Amino acid sequence: MIKVGDKLPAVTLQEYSEVEGEGCSIGPNPVDVAKASAGKTIAVFGLPGAFTPTCSAKHVPGYVENASQFKAAGVDEIWCLSVNDAFVMGAWARDQKTAGKVRMLADGSAEFAKATGLTLDLAGRGMGLRSTRYSMLVKDGKVAALNIEAPGKFEVSDAQTLLAQAKG
User: For residue 163, is it within any domain?
Assistant: First the structure.
């Protein structure tokens, strides 16, 4: 399992773009984790699924509401990762009004989740392999802080906890 001091895995995520520009086409666009995190401080949080109750009601809104405080604390970007496809993440981004605040990144094949060891097997509930709920502060591609939730909990991966670590 990934730990503080480790580099993020060299995988490619997908991000749905609503508008064409800056070399991006409308629709899913690849995001090379190593390149996208190089030289930046990033607040990353992962969760089991788009449009699920805790994720939609608490987890994403906390990061959206605190986006300006994260910027003030030196965080360049906020990333939300979920084992969903880029189209679902794009629809969820519209629903949660994340534009300009949180990048909604699709880990459609769970490559990031598997590479970090942050997986949650929900096959018994018809949802397949998902991501554990967590948050991490990443500096220049390396994990500086890591908060992993116990199954079914939402206590340490919230925006306030990671924001305190970013300020720390």
Answer: no
